[in-house]
């Protein structure tokens, strides 16, 4: 019965983590470029009362007797499905159709990656995120530009007063990873690579590395499926209740035993 208490407690702890994950996904259902996370579980160590395949007398045990000691959360994977597009008509808003991440430089000089394409101009005319992280490679828009065009392949051009032909300012590059599900979320709609994700592979949009293309005047919505998250929330709640019931039953059995001793 002590085993039952700790096993059920591990189940309650795991379902609490599942509910925390669902809560974060739902909280970010309207966050631009957000990637939902999916919690995965694994069973814990088993107590071998009779080891499967062990020899007893003249025969070999076919099944054995193992009692599991609960569950634990093993991974929180980033789901990289495409989010829906939202038209904004803002020329500095960009959405990636397909694979890839925008590269930005943080204030400490490190490079981070994001699917949030809501860019702005800083006081130098450089394209930055809402938090001021600079888009790589650096692109500066002249203050007197009358229009800015960004092609699906990332070529940035601007029309200046008195010019009939647009001036090319540069080309946006994207990054991808062998295992994007292994990226580490650091907040601010940013990811950083890990040993699991591998190093960044950079290329122009629509290039030979499998990068997606850009859509100017659009933003990518969160890929959170709200209905699915509510289903997961209900499942976590029911599993939590079931494990708490096991704790209650085991406690009742202890009470019965204590009553017998008296």
Automatic annotation (TrEMBL):
<dbReference type="InterPro" id="IPR012834">
    <property type="entry name" value="FlgG_G_neg"/>
</dbReference>
<keyword id="KW-0969">Cilium</keyword>
<dbReference type="Pfam" id="PF00460">
    <property type="entry name" value="Flg_bb_rod"/>
</dbReference>
<keyword id="KW-0975">Bacterial flagellum</keyword>
<dbReference type="GO" id="GO:0071978">
    <property type="term" value="P:bacterial-type flagellum-dependent swarming motility"/>
</dbReference>
<dbReference type="Pfam" id="PF22692">
    <property type="entry name" value="LlgE_F_G_D1"/>
</dbReference>
<feature type="domain" description="Flagellar basal body rod protein N-terminal">
    <location>
        <begin position="5"/>
        <end position="35"/>
    </location>
</feature>
<keyword id="KW-0282">Flagellum</keyword>
<dbReference type="InterPro" id="IPR037925">
    <property type="entry name" value="FlgE/F/G-like"/>
</dbReference>
<keyword id="KW-0966">Cell projection</keyword>
<comment type="subunit">
    <text>The basal body constitutes a major portion of the flagellar organelle and consists of four rings (L,P,S, and M) mounted on a central rod. The rod consists of about 26 subunits of FlgG in the distal portion, and FlgB, FlgC and FlgF are thought to build up the proximal portion of the rod with about 6 subunits each.</text>
</comment>
<feature type="domain" description="Flagellar basal-body/hook protein C-terminal">
    <location>
        <begin position="215"/>
        <end position="259"/>
    </location>
</feature>
<dbReference type="GO" id="GO:0009426">
    <property type="term" value="C:bacterial-type flagellum basal body, distal rod"/>
</dbReference>
<dbReference type="InterPro" id="IPR010930">
    <property type="entry name" value="Flg_bb/hook_C_dom"/>
</dbReference>
<comment type="similarity">
    <text>Belongs to the flagella basal body rod proteins family.</text>
</comment>
<feature type="domain" description="Flagellar hook protein FlgE/F/G-like D1">
    <location>
        <begin position="95"/>
        <end position="158"/>
    </location>
</feature>
<dbReference type="InterPro" id="IPR001444">
    <property type="entry name" value="Flag_bb_rod_N"/>
</dbReference>
<dbReference type="InterPro" id="IPR053967">
    <property type="entry name" value="LlgE_F_G-like_D1"/>
</dbReference>
<dbReference type="InterPro" id="IPR020013">
    <property type="entry name" value="Flagellar_FlgE/F/G"/>
</dbReference>
<dbReference type="InterPro" id="IPR012836">
    <property type="entry name" value="FlgF"/>
</dbReference>
<dbReference type="Pfam" id="PF06429">
    <property type="entry name" value="Flg_bbr_C"/>
</dbReference>
<dbReference type="InterPro" id="IPR019776">
    <property type="entry name" value="Flagellar_basal_body_rod_CS"/>
</dbReference>
<protein>
    <recommendedName>
        <fullName>Flagellar basal-body rod protein FlgG</fullName>
    </recommendedName>
</protein>
